[in-house]
Amino acid sequence: MLVSVQTLQRLEAGDPTVGLAVLVSALHVLGMTQRLASLVAPESDRAGISEDLSRLPERTHAASDDELDF
Q1: Phi, psi of 69 (to 5 degrees)
Q2: Percent over 90 (pLDDT), the chain
Q3: Residue ranges of the domains in the chain?
Q4: Which of 19, 32, 62, 67 could be a cystine partner for 27, CB 3.0 to 4.6 Å?
Q5: How confident is the model at residue 59 (pLDDT cuts 50, 70, 90)?
């Protein structure tokens, strides 16, 4: 994997500061690259989805006929 023992230990411990390239390298060495697609799938990112939903406006209004200019 070409990483230090300390980096490998941090990866094994679940340290979130370990780079994504190290994780991908570990998955490749272990023959688990098929899991990569599920890790990066947007629909599986619950935190990201929650963040996006919190940014949506609470209310919207429909445009009236006089607001449409086309």
Answers
A1: -125, 70
A2: 46
A3: 5-54
A4: 32
A5: confident
